[in-house]
Amino acid sequence: MRHIAVIDIGKTNAKVLRVDLATGSETVTARRPNAVLAGGPYPHFDLPALWSFVREGLRDLGRDGPVDAISITTHGAAAALVAGDGDLALPVLDYEHDGPDALAGAYDALRPAFPETGSPRLPLGLNLGSQLYWLSERFPDGFARARHILTLPQYWAFRLTGVAASEATSLGCHTDLWAPWTGEFSSLVDRMGWRGLFPPLRPAATRLGPILPDIATATGLPTDTPVLCGIHDSNASLLPYLGREGALSVLSTGTWMIAMALGGVTAPLDPTRDVLVNVNAKGQPTPTARAMAGREFDEVTKGRMVTPTPQEERAVLGRPTLALPSHHPDTGPFPGQDFAWVPGEPETDGERTAAASFQAALTGAECLRLIGAAGPTYVEGPFGANRAFARMLATATGRPVIATGQGAGTGLGAALLAGPLHSARPDPAPVLPEADPLWRAYAARWRAEVAARQAM
Prior knowledge:
Layout (H helix, E strand, L loop, with lengths): L2 E7 L3 E8 L4 E9 L2 E2 L6 E2 L1 H18 L4 E6 L4 E5 L4 E3 L13 H5 L5 H4 L10 H11 L1 H5 L1 E6 H10 L6 H4 L6 E2 L4 E2 L1 H5 L15 E4 L2 H7 L6 E3 L2 E2 H6 L9 E6 L3 E6 L12 E5 L5 E7 L1 H8 L9 H9 L3 E3 L15 E3 L6 H22 L6 E4 L6 H11 L3 E3 L6 H6 L21 H19 L1
Parallel strand pairs: 1-6, 6-14, 15-21, 21-22
Antiparallel strand pairs: 1-2, 2-3, 4-5, 7-8, 7-9, 10-11, 12-13, 15-16, 16-18, 17-18, 19-20
């Protein structure tokens, strides 16, 4: 197989890509915002609009050239309740809705402890189990209509093939529904009587079936075009690195920054600091830490990201101007801390971008420390094109950073479910820790300020 269509549904944007496994190149052929609708019973994703977008994207992709297979990757913390007729029993809840918090006490009495699931207690609907519990309690009639609970990649695979499946990377991303060390559903699933709603478990690379006849008609794709089961987006970014020797870590960046360690130092994981155990595409437990760094970066820069001049970068380092976490104190490695500028807000967009880049990098370094990361750090996604971020991350960790560029990283990883690259791609040149003491002093000062605020 060579030409893979990838459906990539992120929290912020949805894309349809062509990935060429002969070259590893990714071409985005369609993009749209992943809108959340405020109406109805609760804020929910606009799945009908996404479905039209997916079909149109596949149609255009087929017109441009061959499509040998379709793979799917999406954000986590989302599931579709599918009724017996194939329609949704209830809209797919936006995980940023605070509805599940209203039943937090009752849910906490039911959810398994961290040692069983590797899943920390998260706010809003970030624990998928809390979403399902809230929906079952607040909308019992709709919930009772559900025949299947499908995590989001598998929902789109179901729409394309008619085959329902469960898959471990999506079930294992802080859902409370999965026990990563045993590779089984958690005790919560049986406690709630949900096991029968989850279809058979399939590996992410499984060919669920060819596209349905009506999809072939709508898209113009051959009727025998296979559809793969699909994968959680952070694990798609991790997948290209699973076969490598030695310790390494991956930062998958977008709305969220997800740090994942392979072969690192075994250390106790602190669930109070947004640390968890993911499940990779091989079904293996993977220490992981998270922060909403992409959204935070947009908020700190006020959406006006520019490339800082060397003079602006040096002014931020020398003053120093510190952007301290966080606009999202319920997530990330610094719980309860509110955002602050020290000693004050920068005057130019370039200085603001530099300070925001350093904040994201130092947050990423803390995420990596918490999961015992070792070896080089590979940065996938938007931060992979941010040179200031890479230099500070390398300096703060004392290890090389390999920035793979602007691409989301998820597209190639999802495509690799269909087969390996035809030839290996060399890594970009590593970014090494800075020798200039200003960089090390900045990292030390930032950490000292954060530690002082934590102690208050």
